Amino acid sequence: MGKVTGFLEIDRQVHKYQPASDRIRHFREFTLPMSDKEVEKQAARCMDCGIPFCHGPTGCPIHNQIPDWNDLVYNGDWDSAIRNLHSTNNFPEFTGRICPAPCEEACTLNLEDIPVAIKTVEQAIADKAYETGHIRPYPPEKKTGKRVAVIGSGPAGMAAAQQLGRAGHDVHVYERESRPGGLMRYGIPDFKIEKHYIDRRIEQMQGEGVTFHCGVNVGVDMKVADLIEEFDAVLYCGGSETPRPAGIPGSEFSGVYDAMPYLVQQNRRVGGEPIQSVAWPSHPIIAGGQHVVVVGGGDTASDCIGTAFRQGAVRVTQLDIRPQPPEKEDKLSVWPYWATKMRTSSSQAEGAEREFQVATLEFIGEEGQLTGVRCCEVDDKRKPIAGTEFVIRADLAFIAIGFAGPASDSLMKELDGKINVVTDSRRSNNVEANDRDYRTSVDKLYAAGDVRRGQSLVVWAIREGRQAARSIDEALMGSTVLPR
Q: For 179, which DSSP code?
């Protein structure tokens, strides 16, 4: 695979970024594309390692055949590379931009901290496919006469809908917001993925016969029971949207918000939509000229940081209750699994002040308005250390500590008593359905993505959508050719 000695001859290179001083002035993507020849050289580094952990269960959830398409790119066969990539991944332009690349963590070359630039090559393949016209509608040769409804148009719902549409079913996707994409459109900032990539896929899927119904809030505008009666199968891909409760005193102050209303508002501004959302109503939140504190250490917290800087925040401080991780992991005890080590996102690199092993004790304010955050250092068991308290000035604070399951909306209330929910280790109420057939306890109703799994990665959502589509196709037709 690739060039046998490529990993010895060619240094690892990935996309470069615009300087932080330039990129914080806009909300567009800021990666600088590599030439085809540069990408082909990076693909050449994929060696014949015997056991490619990159696309095994420790690396890629959708089992992308990474060594195969790296070899094809190295040999200049970009058309075959995108066909191979599409055989496992409906949306490589999404994952090539926003996946944290566990495949690179599992790469054999990561034992020397120089993994193959898999994510960079994947994005390049997908972008090249658009340029060459390979990404176009592929409608089914014949229709089955079966009708399937998909609730939610995030990556799980989109992947399932495309697979089912190509299998010949009449697929209808119901989305409560004004445009498809779910939190991939409204939660992830445009500087990480511009939304015209989603629009292109929606256009492709419509050409394949998938119908999108936007502005339809299932459970409010129509009942789930009516969908189950009307369609041969219904797939619920509602996502995980309920913010995990922080339980921090002072959360009622003006200026303290959960992360999602803030991110959704800005994405709607960039998209030219009114800022009010069906799921995340709030008055305008702007960080310009403000001192901002972000509570949480994950991707959502990082998105808040990048958004705040682009809005003109004076200072952004991130509070993480976890200890500062080591700069390098112990390879022999961790590899090929995802390692806990010091990582700095592009948003954090734009000037965030990071505080590790710090607990948020209280939001403080005057006359109902947030003025600061009282914190303290904690020990290894996350217990406060006496005498270490301090206050950070804050005009705005965003709580980004994760999600606790699907929204407690009318849809879930309608299903209450008819559908099982399971409590996972983080107290999330997820719809119970196994990862073999994705069936719920309600006849003809399936569930996939974050609503079943809990908050996770886009790549996991795509996997679940594809697998649920296979299960539905097999149930409706008695057999299936859709891949698992």
A: S
**Coil, helix or strand at residue 172:** strand
Q: Quote the CA–CA distance of 70 and 56 in Å, as a whole number.
A: 16
Residue type, 46: C
478: which residues sit within 8 A by CB, 6+ positions away?
Answer: none
Q: What whole-number distance in Å separates Cα of residue 235 and Cα of residue 157? A: 8
- The single-letter code of the amino acid at 98 is I
CB 139 within 8 A of CB 208: yes
CB atoms < 10 A from the CB of 21, how many?
A: 9
Of 241, 226, 351, give the one whose Cα is nearest residue 291: 351
Residues 322 and 357: their CA atoms lie apart, in Å, by: 5
Taking each continuous run of H as one helix and of E as one strand, the counts in the chain are: 18, 17
Beta strands in 296-420 (DSSP E): 315-320, 353-356, 358-366, 369-377, 390-393, 396-399
Total-model pTM: 0.95
CA distances from 184 to 16, 194, 220, 346 (A): 23, 10, 23, 18
| Average pLDDT estimate for 12-36 | 96
Closest CA to 133 of 204, 43, 198, 36: 204
pLDDT by residue (tens digit) across 410-443?
A: 787 888 778 877 766 565 678 999 989 999 999 9
**How far is 449 from 435, CA to CA, in rounded Å?**
10
- Beta strand pairing status for 31-32 and 369-377? unpaired
Residue 115 pLDDT exceeds 90: yes
Residue 172 and residue 231: Cα distance in Å, rounded? Answer: 9
Helix axes of 118-131 and 66-74: crossing angle, nearest 10 degrees: 60
- Only one residue has tokens 């989305």, namely 175
Asked whether 303 and 328 are in contact (CB, 8 A), the reply is no
Q: Partners of 258 in the beta sheet?
A: 399
C-beta of residue 12 within 8 angstroms of C-beta of residue 58 = no
